[in-house]
Amino acid sequence: MDFNYLSWIIFLPAVGAILIAFLPGLSGRVIKWIAAVFTFVSLALSIYLFTIFDRAAEVIQFEEKLSWIPAINAHYHLGVDGLSLPLVILMALLGFLVVLISWKINLRSREYFAWLLLLETSILGVFCSLDLLLFFLFWEIEVIPMYFLISIWGTGRKEYSAIKYVVYTLFGSAMMLAGILSLYFTTGSLNMVEIAQGGLAMVQSVMPAAAIFLFLLIGFAVKLPVFPLHTWLPDAHTDAPTAVSVVLAGALLKMGGYGMLRICVGIFPAVAREYAFILVILAVVNVLYGAAVTLRQTDLKRLIAYSSISHMGYVLLGIFALGQVSMVGASLQMFSHGIITGLLFAMAGLVMHNAGERDLRKLGGLARQMPIIAVVFSVAGLGALGLPTTSGFAAEFLVFVGSFTSTTVAGIQIYTILGVLGIVITAGYILWMLQRVFYGQVLEQFKKARDADILERVYMFIFVAVIMLVGIYPAILTDIIKMGVMPIVRLLGG
Amino acid sequence: MLNLGLVIPELTLAATAILVILLDLFIKQKGWLAAVSIAGIVVAAGFTVAMWGGGLPSTLIFFNTLAVDNFALFFKLLFLVIAALIILASTDYVSKMARFQGEYYALVLLSALGMMLMAATAELISIYIALELASISLYALAGFLKDPKSTEASLKYLLLGAVASAVLLFGMALVFGFTGKTQLGEIAQAIQSLSLSGVLASPGLILGIVLMIAGFGFKIAAVPFHMWVPDVYEGAPTPITAYLSVASKAAGFAVILRVFYSAFGLPSWLSLDWGLIFAVLAAIGMTLGNVIALPQTNIKRMLGYSSIAQAGYLMVGLATVGLSPLADVVGRSGLLFFLASYALTNLGAFIAIIAISGKLDSDLISDYSGMGRRAPLLALALTLCLISLIGMPPAAGFMAKFYIFSGAVQQGLLWLVVIAVINSVISAYYYLRVVKVMWLGEPASKAKVPSSWALRLALAISCFGVLLLGIIPAYGMRLAEMAARMFGF
Question: A143 near A174, Cβ under 8 Å?
């Protein structure tokens, strides 16, 4: 295979960003077209990759490996397997859709689209890297575009939220760096696959593996986010511009889940087994606490943001139930939540834009003025509460069944049942939100609110189609995710 | 033995300095002085590169006082590059001065000469002489503006520098008294021939070493010998501040590395001792520097405290060298790589500041408001350098930190690395404050910020270097490793 698909997928958006930033005299329209073309080609390549991906193989595919820094044995090493491919597609898809969602941005559009595309490159890079240093490099690059995107184009207390995001993330990655350095020292390698396969047999036990595990886990937990490291999330999500909220909730949080699965569980199976019960408890806290707090929100975006915390709890539960099915479910939940919450944020953005209001206490009766938005918003909401035929159902079902039947963690059944309670609360706040926004009395001040225009309908359709496709035929993803999870399951010895 | 062929770079630089002073008497177009200085530097750099590796054994010349090894050549090249960039960045600044333009360039060249010798000397007395040559030139340069602040800076620098020199000299005298030698290799032999009880019975030797740490600590702005830094950085002409913050610091680290590694590297309990001293100094330095940098409103002062913090990160490398076995090269090469990337980064930041402050006539961070729209490329360059100072990719600072910390973790300094990475988070807050002001603030006026081509060239070179070392650092790391290996005395 001569064509370096992954490099192209990752770096096309960056090339677009550089063109946008440095080509002189571009009009706003041209900038948007450049952004759309580059992200679309990246998306098309990733979908093509999906079609030629060997769905029955457990190995890393489309591997690219070049020596990068011999002094520390680091490589430019890319590859995807069943764990990462769905997330790559998710990011590429969202990357294209957020350009459409941002079509109305005219404030400093050159910088905006340059940062947005750079953000996409860094997240794609995280999912494709198989070298710990490269992984960390992409992980860190993401912070700067995010900082600018929130602090310049955001709303509300945007600068506070942006710096809070940066400080939390950097704190997490500082811990992660300590973990990666320790891991590098104990194994002498930065190659994730090699370390996972070799196990930690070569550890010279300078420090317990559990300590390294904890360092790395903190880094990922900030991102996922895991209670009590979650407080950056509602602020960042609420104040970010719509498109950035979509990327943030849709793809960025998944970096945490992906890291836990691939690195924490994949490299430290024994430690993961030992401490899984703590993380499962935290997962239940995430689910219930997140859901309970969501119930009390009156701001549309903040409500969706808190619901993300709750939904990420299912991911955490699925991962650390350590069963094959539960981990598949967690991975599918990452993909599904990315699409569904992405759509929720996009719709919330539209409501805000068209009605000029996002306070739930002041909204109402919008279904009359914006029927299409109302329907699509409802579809996304039903997906979030796990209605059958949406991807949310497939994912959460797998998580619960998998966790309940997992034999690795003692007492997991109780935690799973507690987790299921979260669904009830979710149904509560989602339906309540839809009702508050779209039904009831038609309010005078919203009489002139518009419905979605043609471009908006296009991206809504894509979102809904993907949600339905995965909901009705989840095997399209679960087949390959299973192949990605199997090596980890074997390491766990279950 | 006298072998002048091996000191050609130094001789070239000395000749250039003298030539510049002489030309200054006859030439009306003072711009030529900068051109001559740069030409001299390029020639000297050419000689240095030609001497690199080349099967050259780590030769000691001039009665074993000067070492010509890759380590010295690495630093010579670094100082030459820094001096060239500083001169490029100074042209605007200097052309506004009515008098003493020739002296300015000559002093820059002479202090570079002193630093080159510092990196090469392997004998205590010549170390002291080289250090004074570098320092006295810098004292004069710091006071070049002749306004009250600049004069205060110069005086403070001179007085505290003299105290530090005295302390250093006292330390050297003690070491000489207990070993009877001044040549580093011979000191090492003398110390190794002492028994443990012999050393313990002579606490003066340890005192001498500690005093030398204090003396050198002044040069590298290590806490608690950092008091001069913020005032001098604020008062000195900005190009000189840049020069101080990178070259003088690098020279200090070069000397420390050579002296402590060569003379006090064995027995291992001794190197463990000073390694731990540096580890503690590192932890205090970076924490203090970063915390005090937080509330600063003047960008030069802020970068002054930031350089104290960066010295702390660098001392993590010294601690690693102290704790690792002599043959282990990672600590030293990590330190060298960090120095090179720090030099490029800080230079880039200061050059951007020279350009911006030249127009604004202010060093207040709040006056940088809206610079992203008034001078997008300058602001972008400054942003890149600040990101590199935080230690984030894709800039050099990221790789440098990764490299130096990975060495430290190997020597069981994980606690120090954790302190260091948490410090990086703290530092992000004040570095990003500048970024925030530049890109989020409203511009005070619409006026563009002009800059000369020399300034832009210097800035482009630094930023290119920062990106190069950040994205494909392999070559730079190999150079650093070769330099750290070919390390004679």
Answer: no
Q: Which of A82, A38, A77 is nearest to A58 (CA)?
A: A82
Confidence of residue B81 (pLDDT cuts 50, 70, 90): very high
Question: What is d(CA A336, CA A383) in angstroms, rounded to the nearest whole number?
Answer: 9
CB of A10 less than 8 A from some CB of B: no
| Under-50 pLDDT residues of chain A | none
Q: Is residue A481 part of a domain?
A: yes
Of A111, A137, A163, Cβ closest to residue B393 = A137
Instruction: Dig out the tokens for B353 from the structure.
Output: 């500041």
Looking at CA atoms only, how far is residue B301 from chain A in angstroms?
A: 22
Chain B residues with CB inside 8 Å of A140's CB? 392-393, 398
Domains: count for chain A: 1
Q: What is the pLDDT of residues B114-149, one digit of tens each?
A: 999 999 898 999 999 999 999 999 999 998 888 888
Q: Which of A105, A1, A120 is nearest to A49 (CA)?
A: A1
A243: nearest Cα among A120, A379, A126:
A120
Structural domain contains residue A248 = no
For A182, other C-beta atoms within 10 Å of its C-beta total 24
Structure tokens at A203: 């550890």
Q: How far apart are CA B184 and CA B486, in angstroms?
A: 16
Report d(CA A478, CA A366) in Å as an integer: 37
- Show the tokens assigned to B72: 């010295």
Closest residue on chain A to B481 (Cα): A71
Report the phi/psi class of residue B24: left, alpha or beta, with left for phi > 0 and alpha for psi in -120 to 50: alpha
The angle that helices B299-323 and B396-410 make with each other, rounded to 10 degrees, is 30
> Residue A83 corresponds to which amino acid?
L
State the pLDDT at residue A204: 53
Interface contact A151, partner B, CB < 8 A: yes
Owning domain of residue A346:
275-494
Q: Which residue would you say has higher pLDDT here, B97 or A166?
A: A166
- For residue A179, is it within any domain? no
- Distance CA(B59)–CA(B72), nearest Å, equals 11
**ipTM value of the model?**
0.89
